[in-house]
Design brief:
Layout (H helix, E strand, L loop, with lengths): L4 E6 L10 H10 L4 E6 L1 H4 L10 H15 L6 E5 L5 H10 L4 H5 L2 H12 L7 H4 L1 H10 L5 E4 L4 H17 L8 E4 L25 H9 L20 H9 L3 H9 L5 H27 L2 H29 L4
Parallel strand pairs: 1-2, 2-3, 4-5
Helix pairs in contact: 3-13, 4-8, 4-14, 8-9, 10-13, 11-12, 11-13
Length: 325
């Protein structure tokens, strides 16, 4: 029986951070059940960080290190860099010819991010930024992915992809698969907002113990709990959100918080210890792999070669039905 295919990707716009910890863990679980295609989407990084591209090669290598050290198997998965497979750009161009502008403008994250990053002084009122959900669609449907692991805020992007697939089939002929979501929750930043380098609230995935502990100490807690003797509400506490992932005894910790038998400082200390222990093996493997950068390049080149074979076959079909062959 042929396995269903998954596609997903991440931008190398900064260091890989703990916000995507559960996403990456989900990828690792899925690699045994699906035919998985995972891409470091460097062109997507340009949509909001086009001014200075000097760090992109280093960030690509770092992201590959994080993925591989966490347990993504380059034999079980196709792991590659988006720009190494030019068919992504060709399909993006062709799909953009038939996608109504209003479809892109109504994506909820477009105006939100445009304002947020604009307030931070970034000029992203560009064609590339408007069209990045279109590029996401090309990324996914190029491999005829049956499903895409996504966070909830990306669901409108996936719905757009399905709409584009249906429009393409109506205009020409069915070529692509309508992708379905596999929800992967995100961990919040230390200030409770979505974790992002842009907000400065991230915890690097490869953070050394001292840095990790320092970032955990800065996490916001229940704002109503001022003194240690005040009873807390773990349900609105960022620290507890992380405890539910990293601490097997998280229910007990919640009880201590509610009856004020543990303070926020101690609660953060316990969390940091759990995170350091959980990530110790990953960080050990990462240091070993970092000593062999040629191996990382070899793995990415191998992944790109495999991805190109699938992408080329899809584009042959696309050109044929669009009378461009």
């Amino acid at each position: 029986m042929t396995k269903k295919r998954i596609f997903s990707g991440m931008q190398p716009s900064g260091k890989f951070h703990m916000g995507n910890f559960q996403v990456l863990n989900n990828w690792i679980k899925l690699q045994n059940e699906y035919d998985c295609v995972y891409s470091i989407v460097d062109w997507h990084a340009l949509t909001s960080s086009y001014e200075d591209t000097r760090m992109i090669p280093e960030r690509i290598e770092c992201m590959a290190l994080d993925w591989l050290s966490a347990g993504l198997d380059p034999e079980k998965n196709i792991i590659f860099v988006q720009s190494h497979v030019k068919e992504h750009a060709e399909l993006h161009l062709l799909l953009s010819m038939m996608t109504p502008l209003s479809w892109l403008e109504r994506v909820p994250t477009y105006k939100d991010k445009l304002q947020q990053l604009g307030d931070m002084g970034k000029e992203i009122n560009t064609y590339g930024f408007l069209g990045y959900p279109e590029l996401q669609t090309a990324d996914i449907v190029l491999y005829k992915a049956d499903a895409v692991p996504v966070a909830e805020d990306q669901l409108p992007h996936l719905e757009l992809a399905r709409e584009i697939v249906r429009r393409f089939a109506n205009l020409y002929k069915p070529v692509f698969t309508e992708p379905q979501p596999i929800l992967s929750p995100l961990l919040p930043g230390i200030d409770g907002r979505k974790m992002s380098k842009s907000y400065g609230n991230e915890i690097p995935y490869a953070a050394e113990p001292d840095e990790l502990q320092a970032r955990v100490r800065l996490m916001i807690t229940d704002p109503q709990r001022v003194k240690k003797t005040d009873k807390g509400n773990p349900d609105i506490c960022t620290v507890y959100t992380f405890h539910k992932i990293f601490s097997p005894d998280y229910a007990e910790i919640a009880g201590h918080c509610r009856n004020a038998s543990i303070g926020c400082v101690e609660c953060k200390k316990r969390l940091a210890e759990k995170m350091v222990t959980t990530l110790a093996d990953v960080h050990g493997r990462r240091k070993v792999m970092a000593g062999n950068p040629d191996k990382i390049k070899e793995i990415l080149a191998y992944g790109a070669e495999r991805a190109r074979k699938i992408a080329a076959a899809t584009m042959d079909e696309v050109r044929t039905v669009m009378n461009l062959a």
